Amino acid sequence: MKRKSYGKINLSLEVLNKREDGFHNIDTIMQFVDVYDEIEIETTNSNTIEIVCDEEGFPKDETNLIYKGWEALKVFYKENPGVRVEVIKNMPIAAGMGGGSSNCACVMEALNEIWNLNFSKEKLQEISKDIGSDVPYFFENRTLRATGRGFDFYDMIKIEDIPILIINNGCKVSTPYVYSKVEMAKERKMDKLVESLNRREIKKEFFFNDMTKVSVEVCPEIEDIIEDMYRLDAKVSLMSGSGSTVFGIFDSYEECNNAYNLLKVKYRYVFNTRAIRRDYEG
């Protein structure tokens, strides 16, 4: 079985406070983009999971979220749970696009079908909450506002077919490190952005990411990418998640294509893409 494992960007991200369980309460808007890893899942007689990927730095052991997702589901399957999962990575690793979480949810959805577990989306989300805070979002298919640990979801206006340029220079940022250093929000800002988006406005002054300051200390080139985006007419440019991926939203595909052609030779990962629903197979 072959599946596409789509990435996301955080249109904005607010860090509110630290919880008693050690996690943080956040307020964010998550958006699927047409950038994806390719995953193939096959059943085996091995009674275990084999994870295959040629990408340097991609874990293939029990630390991989795919492994954790398989481990969480196999307790509900009474037969041989052996599978082989091959991942072709297109998204950068540890970059703020949720690649590992997306891979996990993608494999869990596939196993739910292959093993005839017939679990609902909500059941899969509940099982996945302890695997990673981003994982439940990847069972959804649209733009959502997320609060709490990141999986209390609220409907948003539909955002699709907006030109987006995504750039990553290959620098990896540790999410736990960023959370350990980030300053908590002193005032709430997300409602203003939501109101603006509901008016179908994209205004630079309403977009933000509370994690940027810490991540820039790890990867200073984040600021250079944002400056390049604005120099090439992006309406908004922002770091996604804990970084180091930066996205730019453009008025037109022509402007986005122009920026792509000029920057693709400068940075390691450059994706000329758009906002989508996850079920888009274009």
Summarize the structure in short.
The protein has helices at 65-74, 99-114, 121-128, 175-181, 190-198, 212-218, 221-231, 253-263; strands at 2-18, 24-43, 49-52, 83-88, 144-148, 152-155, 163-168, 236-239, 246-249, 269-274. It has 282 residues and is an alpha+beta fold.
How many domains comprise the coordinates? 2
CATH architecture of the largest domain: 2-Layer Sandwich
Strand content: 25-35%
The computed structural class is alpha+beta
Mean pLDDT: 95
**What percent of residues adopt helix (DSSP H or I)?**
25-40%
Unreliable sequence segments: none
- The gyration radius over C-alpha positions equals 19 Å
Q: Give the SSE string.
A: EEEHEHHEEEHHHHEEHE
In total, the number of strands is: 10
Number of helices: 8
CATH class of the largest domain reads: Alpha Beta
Taken from the alpha-carbon principal axes, the silhouette is globular
- Main beta sheet: 6 strands, mixed
CATH topology of the largest domain: Ribosomal Protein S5, domain 2
Question: What brief labels describe this structure?
Answer:
Ribosomal Protein S5, domain 2, about 280 residues, Alpha-Beta Plaits, globular
